[in-house]
Design brief:
By secondary structure, the protein is mainly alpha-helical. It has a domain at about 85-280: MetI-like (MetI-like fold, Orthogonal Bundle), CATH 1.10.3720. Helices cover about 85% and strands about 0% of the residues. It is built from twelve helices and no strands. The two termini are about 50 Å apart.
Length: about 290
């Protein structure tokens, strides 16, 4: 008995499902290729963005004079010399230690005070003139006082760094608390959620983007605080090295210390970017879904 082949109509009925699967697979492949191309272009752009200023600097050093702006080659040689004699590790570690400890203390204090002021509007309005007064005070002017009170050791530098970071975090966190959707808060309260549960499941997750932004700003301020403290009173650190080399007209040494600070700031921001991608992965997924 002869069996007829499936008709075109039956084949047509089976095609839509398989075509949807193949279309979805093709879309995922195209998106993966696009992501790889974008990442490659980004790396190339970053390399160009770093190389071009170095080339311009090298050319300018020949026109202006190395005694005024040094040169990338001389700075690289000084870095190698400092690496060999151990001074690179000593000065960099001292500044890094002061900056990271002060940054962490400033973030913790600023976040805690910001949450309290964000939740209690009456208290925030009452202390706002005092907070703004201390915020407007140039913290650099506190460096001599910290050194008098706490000595020229680590504690004074950490206190100065923390005083420069705490207000940035405080203001960002306070505004983050105030920007939380009140309907979500009311929904949690309608379920008789405790204040601890509200803080853990609503307030803290909503504050993460605000806090990361504050930390990104605070990184630069932390390095500034550490360097200023070292320039005023210290026996080691990149700030001390800048002060020492500029005092003997060693332009290469001063610029080398600044280059190390730039590299340190880039490392801080790189680590923070990785943390941000891990913590805020939901935002990237949402943005990708909206674009597609």
């Amino acid at each position: 008995m002869k069996i007829d082949a499936p008709s075109d109509a039956a084949a047509g009925r089976a095609d839509p499902a398989s075509s949807r699967v193949s279309s979805a697979a093709e879309f995922e492949r195209q998106r993966a290729r696009h992501a790889r191309r974008t990442a490659t272009r980004l790396q190339i752009d970053r390399v160009v963005a770093m190389v071009l200023p170095l080339v311009a600097w090298q050319l300018a050093s020949g026109w202006i004079g190395k005694k005024w702006i040094s040169s990338p080659v001389d700075v690289a040689l000084r870095l190698w010399s400092m690496l060999l004699d151990g001074s690179l590790e000593m000065h960099s570690w001292e500044t890094f230690k002061e900056a990271i400890i002060g940054l962490m203390i400033g973030v913790v204090l600023g976040a805690a005070i910001g949450i309290v002021l964000g939740l209690w509007r009456r208290l925030s309005d009452a202390v706002d003139p005092v907070v703004m007064g201390f915020y407007s005070l140039p913290r650099v002017s506190l460096a001599p006082l910290f050194i008098i009170w706490l000595g020229i050791g680590l504690v004074a530098k950490v206190a100065l760094v923390a005083s420069m970071v705490v207000f940035v975090v405080l203001f960002n966190v306070r505004e983050g608390v105030r920007s939380i959707d009140r309907e979500v808060v009311d929904a949690f309260r309608s379920m008789n959620a405790s204040r601890t549960a509200l803080l853990r499941h609503v307030i803290v997750p909503s504050l993460v983007p605000w806090l990361l932004t504050a930390i990104r700003i605070g990184i630069g301020m932390a390095l500034v605080g550490a360097v200023v403290g070292e320039m005023i009173g210290a026996s080691r650190g990149l700030g001390w090295y800048v002060n020492h080399t500029s005092g003997v007209y060693d332009m290469t040494g001063s610029i080398t210390a600044l280059v190390i600070l730039v590299i340190m700031a880039m490392m801080f921001n790189g680590v923070l970017t990785l943390i941000e991608r891990r913590v805020l992965h939901w935002r990237r997924n949402a943005d990708a879904w909206i674009r597609n």
